Amino acid sequence: MAVEVTPIEGVGAEISGLDLKSLSGADFDTLRTAFADHGLIFFRDQSISEEDHIAFAERWGEINVNRFFAAHPDYPQIAMVAKEPGDTDNIGGGWHTDHSYDHEPALGSVLVARVLPETGGDTMFASMYTAYETLPDDLKAEIEGKYAVHSGKHIFGEGPDTYYKQSDAGSGEDGSNRIGNAAVAATLEDPVHPIVITHPLSGKKALYVNPAFTRSVVGMDEAASKALLDKLYTHVFQGNAFHTRFKWQPGSIAMWDNRSTWHWALNDYQGQRRIMHRITIEGCALN
Ligand code: SIN
After folding, report:
1. Are the beta carbons of 196 and 208 closer than 8 angstroms?
2. Which residues are identified as catalytic?
3. Domain span holding position 131
């Protein structure tokens, strides 16, 4: 089988002609290049076990064991991204990039579809390379050299305003809550990252703020900071030309780069079950 990398309109590339269970060194090099270039790679018709999933992720780097998501009952490296028929909210149901609240944000995640709803449950992706490239020059100048504060406390922590209410975060297959460990969220030390990063793999510039975890722009008052972030988010929200909607099928796998993409799990399948297995790979400090 010859490996093919087919760019997708908007963002990403579909990889065909390989089996993730038996990747040669040359295949892996092709994937690494495609991942750096596109920030997002998709695979179809794969049949991989949890062990295969872990082995594939480990080829990219060290696995980040998620502090807040319920883990797979037998494989702590796998975070459960689950929604049961009785749950109303889902995990990741708004534009975001994972782990920007860490000092060394995760490289990316490998998401494997395990149980899919009959209808809905697609995932949206957006390219932060193109988001940056297509910013108007005056906005590029405005963010040049600026930094932003990121946090996960308001999402994973305790308190009336936290995004995931620990009391109604739903039940997983094994009866555990989908989101937990709120006390750890309170101990997070909020990092600052540049608003425009130079991507560690590709060397390209990417916009690095996101509506879920970016809290403020360093050195600006609250109103000015909000106004600037809103302008950047509006640019991405309206950037249909650099969005892709991924339709999951049995055997589908997506791997995204947290430094050069956003994603958003659509929550349009109430009353149905959707179970995804996610492994996140450690990254590095961003400059
Ligand atoms: C996530 O945000 O990690 C979940 C993405 C998805 O379930 O499609």
Report:
1. yes
2. 96, 98, 263, 278
3. 4-281
